[in-house]
Amino acid sequence: MSVARPAxxxxxxxxxxxxxxxxxxxxxxxxxxxDQKWSIDFDQRCIDYAxxxxxxxxxxxxxxxxxxxxxxxxxxxxxxxxxxxxxxxxGFVTDLSPGxxxxxxxxxxxxxxxxxxxxxxxxxxxxxxxxxxxxxxxAVLHHIPDVELAFREVLRVLEPGGRFVFAGEPTRWGDxxxxxxxxxxxxxxxxxxRFPGLASRWSRPQVELDESSRAAALEAVVxxxxxxxxxxxxxxxxxxxxxxxxxxxxxxxAWFGWPVRTFEAAVNxxxxxxxxxxxxxxxxxxxSALDRALARVVPARFYYNxxxxxxxxxxxxxxxxxxxxxxxxxxxxxxRWSAVGTRILPALDSTGIGYLRWRVHARSRTTGTPAExxxxxxxxxxxxxxAISPAALPAxxxxxxxxxxxxxxxxxxxxxxx
Length: 418
Description:
4-stranded antiparallel beta sheet
C-alpha cells in the first residue's frame, strides 16, 4: 500500500492541469478529517444510510455477496457500512489517494474487519478478470475522467451475473442548485461572523477559512462530471452492462443539506453540539421522505443524487432464478411446485422508503400439497418489482392476488425518481 506524502508547490501547480493528480492531492489532504467534515461514522445511522441506498436501487437479492470491491473508497464509508449491514462478506477497498486507502484500512481495523486495501486507478483496476461478485462505489464516478472505461473495468473484474452499485453521484441540475446555495451560505456566514459580539464566539480562525477556500478551489478541479440519469445509464450499457437501472434522491433534502454543511465548515465547531447534529439529521430525514413523495411529479433530473446499478452478462451461480426447474424469484421452490397466487404487502424500510413484499402460495404438481413461501423483499430475485413512494402505498394495499400461472406475477408500480 502506497503512503501519502506532503504535496509540494510544484505538485499543486501541476494539479490544475492533471485531474488525477488533483484527485490524489485533494483526497490525501482531506483524508485525516474527511469523516468529521461529512459526518461519516460507522454507527447505526450510517449503516442504515448505506444499506438503504443499496436497497433503493438494487434490492436485497444475493445477500451476502461473497467478494466485494469498492472503487474510490475514501475512508471506507460505503463498503464497511454495507458489510456491517450484512450485504457482503469479504471486502476489498481501492482509491487513487494513498491517504484515503490508509484511512479506510484504519477504519476497517477499528471495526475488526480484515479488509484488503490498494491504491488503484478505476480506469485500470489491478485485479484479474471475474474476481468479484459485487463492485460498489459512493460519490466516485464524477471524479473519474473516462466513466465508460471505468464501467468496462468494473464489468471485467465482475463474475458473470455479478452486480455493481454506485450511489451519491451528482446530477446536473441538482449540483448546479447545490453549488449556488453553498456559495451564498459561505458568503453570508463568513460576513456575519465578523461582526462584533459574534466574531469571538462563532468565527473560525482566518487560517482555517483560507484553507477551506483553497480546498474548495481544488475541489472544483476534481469534480469532473455531473450526470443526467439517462445518460449515465447509457454509459453503463455502452460498456456492456445489462439490467441497468437508476434511482434519484434528494431534492429539498439537498437544498437544506448543502447550506447546512457549508455553515458547519464556516463557523467555530465548538458552537455546534449534539443538538445541532440531531436537528440536521432529523431534518434531512424528514425532507428526504417528502422528496420521495414528490418523485411522483418531479422529473428525476432535478434531484441531486443519482444511484445506478447493473450486472455483467451471464448467469450468476448465486441466482436460483437462472437454474432450470425453479420458479423465478422464489429460491427453494423447485420445478415440482407451481405458484398459484400472490398476496401483496406494503412495507417500509428504516428511511420510510416504500417497498412491496409478497407471499407466494405454491402447490405440489404431483401430490397437490399446498405450501407457502416466506415473504420476500422487493428486488429479491424479482427485478420487475420496484420501490414505491409511501404516498403510493394506499393504492397498493388492496392489490388483488395474481392469477394462477406457472410463475409468480411481476408487478410494476411507480418508484422514486421514475
